[in-house]
Amino acid sequence: MLPHLHPLLAVPIWRQLRHLGGVGLILLGLADNSVVPLTGSMDVLTIWLAARHREPWPYYALMATLGAVIGGYITYSLARKGGKETMERKLSKKRAAQVCKAFERWGFSAVVVPALLPPPFPFLPSLLAAGAMQYSRKKFLAALVLGRGLRYFIEAYCGFHYGRHILRFFSRYYKPALAILIGLAVIGAAITVIQYLRYRKK
Question: Domain extents for the chain?
Answer without folding.
Answer: 7-201
